[in-house]
Amino acid sequence: MSTTGDSTTRAEWPLYEVFVRGKRGLNHVHVGSLHAADDRMALTHARDLYTRRNEGVSIWVVRSEHITASTRDEKDPFFSPSADKVYRHPTFYDIPEDVPHI
Amino acid sequence: MTTPNATVPAEGAQKPLQEHFDATIARDQRIEPRDWMPEGYRRTLVRQIAQHAHSEIIGMQPEGEWITRAPSLRRKAILFAKVQDEAGHGLYLYSAAETLGVDRADLTQRLIEGRQKYSSIFNYPTLSFADVGVIGWFVDGAAICNQVPLCRSSYGPYARAMVRICKEESFHQRQGYELLMTMMRGTEAQREMVQDAVDRWWWPSLMMFGPPDGDSPNSAASMAWKIKRHSNDELRRRFVDMTVPQADKLGVTLPDPELRWNPERGRHDFGTPDWSELQRVISGDGPCNSERMERRRSAHEEGAWVREAATAHAAKQAARAEEGAVA
Predict the structure, then answer these.
(1) Please, one GO biological process term (chain B) (predicted)?
(2) What is the pLDDT of residues A37-85, one digit of tens each?
């Protein structure tokens, strides 16, 4: 039997991120991660791990290394262009109160 | 996302990051995996989440022993589902731990080498089927007291894992209590089994909340960082207050002569657990420590060929797909 720390215990399965659609009409939502040898195993493991009580009607799995993410902090300048265009919001425009349905 | 922030900022650059982190905690917002965090915060979380994950995995053993001996198909199916949930809880938590930049296989390795701990409670034996009921009632009840506040823990992935877990713990506690109610309606011998299990599990369950506050070195930092929301002693008192009326309804006696209602404090007074016993069990000298570790180690080693075969199969399939694409 293999002992600790050798190559057999290190035969690593890659990490997958799991996304579940809770019910029809909702987006898939990230629920966690798991390790699996291949895509098919990742799907069945995701079913067993994250939907034991009807939590989902559809599952996506994707290798974690295939996800490209924005920089690490929400307070990053990466998002600043979306903050300085107030005219994109309906509240930017003054409309008299007696104008209906607007 | 599970990619940790590997870059360590220079000394001078760290101050605004620390301030941003502190402000996020102060506003009761969550810290997320790719945020900068102090090394102590990361280390504390890794230790706590890993220990929690290991506890769920080792926790499959005491009850798992009764799956083949459950008295009915109904009880067997319930116990199966419960033990499967414990595995699931362990995996949710390993998933949360990995967002902090540690490797799951490495955590397993640290467990089976005895370098990381798990809850002391799982080092006690399950001597009768009543123990299955009492574990659900006490141990899962104590876990609920501990874990409900952790749903608001400052680290996002940990808090979210706890939300999933808490939803499932309620089933665990209720199936245990219902099992005990059924036995209490049975024969005198069955009622004695329940009382015996209560007597054996009560004090170890109180110890699950950890050492008393004055003796809990990591608590202050964990509470300042809002990883933990309540002290060990506060959670222990809540558990006692919650459990006493349940024991009355069930018709069992909790084995503590000092246990009584204190109308002035509006809570129960109760005796002091034997802290030297907790110390012994934590440091490896409980009734089942070596058995639990041996079982975990052999399961890991005996499963090695399955992991290797799956890896080889995946590699072969990938190579064939590539050949097909080339041809």
Answers:
(1) phenylacetate catabolic process
(2) 999 999 999 999 999 998 999 999 999 999 998 866 656 677 777 778 8
pLDDT tens digits, residue range A2-50? Answer: 334 444 444 589 999 999 999 999 999 999 999 999 999 999 999 999 9
CATH class given for the domain over B14-286: mainly alpha
Strand A28-35, strand A58-63: pairing: unpaired
Q: What is the pTM of this model?
A: 0.90
- Give chain B positions within 8 Å (CB) of A75: 20
A chain contacts of residue B168, beta-carbon cutoff 8 Å: 53
Q: Which domains does chain A have, with CATH numbers?
A: 15-69 (3.10.20.520)
In the numeric block, the tokens 């009607």 are attached to A57
CB contact under 8 Å between B109 and A17, yes or no, is: no
Question: Contact B92/A34, CB-based, under 8 Å?
Answer: no
CB pairs under 8 A between A and B: 83
Phi, psi of B238 (to 5 degrees): -60, -40
ipTM above 0.85, yes or no: yes
Measured between CB atoms, which of A10, A32, A37 is closest to B313?
A37
